[in-house]
Amino acid sequence: MCQRQFHATPAHVFQNYQAQIRLMVKMRFLVGIARRIAETNGVTNFPQVRETLGVLAAQSTMVDALVHAMEVKGRMLGAYFVPDAHTLYSAQVLTQQLYAGVILALRDLAGGGLIMLPSSVQDFADPELCSLIEKTQQSPVTSSKGRVKFFKLAWDAIGSEFASRHTQYEMFYAGATFVTKGHSFRTFDWDRCTQLVDHMLDSYSLDDEVDRAAPVAA
Asked: Which member of 20, 92, 103, 166 lies 3.0 to 4.6 Å from 180 by CB, making a disulfide possible if both were Cys?
């Protein structure tokens, strides 16, 4: 009965649909941090940095596209609109594997910039420390205070205890990976695919080919 209240009704789809919307917005935020890391460090035009940013942009757009696809492919159930279940479960399978890689890419972009930061905002109140901060926290696009402020935000998003919890959450909030993959298996339209294979196989006969290959009697 507990299982049926989720899977015999649209409850499970609704619950996880809103989670994918949340992740879609979260991905945009993380990609925004990635872009700002590159700008703050003055490395946006490095080919390898653009490659990383390009991959992150594609991954963010994929999550966005999956959310829109589950809406486009949805259906009415009585008076209620239900997003497409299989597209939803596809998104879960892919994003569970995706999120940790996104965080790692951001950490690679930031490098030691996430570590070499003042320990506290109070350091700016000390004239000697403030002078050192201004010398070491330089950026082509912002002040030393702006750089520290941004990298503290980046650390909160990708490196802190809070961020680590988020990474674990995104990997397992929908259940273990074998669970989400099972949902994907259960809701996929397998007949649509296997019918293409069967149609191809039915379009020719081995007997006909054997007859054509047989030697003609003298």
From this structure: 92
Structure tokens at 126: 């000390």
The SS3 of residue 82 is strand
Could you count the other beta carbons within 10 Å of the beta carbon of residue 41? 19
Asked if residue 164 lies in contact with residue 171, where contact means CB atoms within 8 angstroms, the answer is no
Q: How far apart are CA 25 and CA 169, in angstroms?
A: 16
User: Are residues 167 and 160 in contact, defined by beta-carbon separation less than 8 angstroms?
Assistant: no
Tell me phi and psi for residue 42, to 5 degrees.
Answer: 70, 35
- Record the pTM: 0.85
The rounded Cα 138 to chain-centroid distance in angstroms is 32
Q: What is the pLDDT of residues 137-167, one digit of tens each?
A: 888 999 989 999 999 999 999 999 999 999 9
Cα–Cα separations (whole angstroms), residue 184 to 5, 59, 83? 19, 20, 15
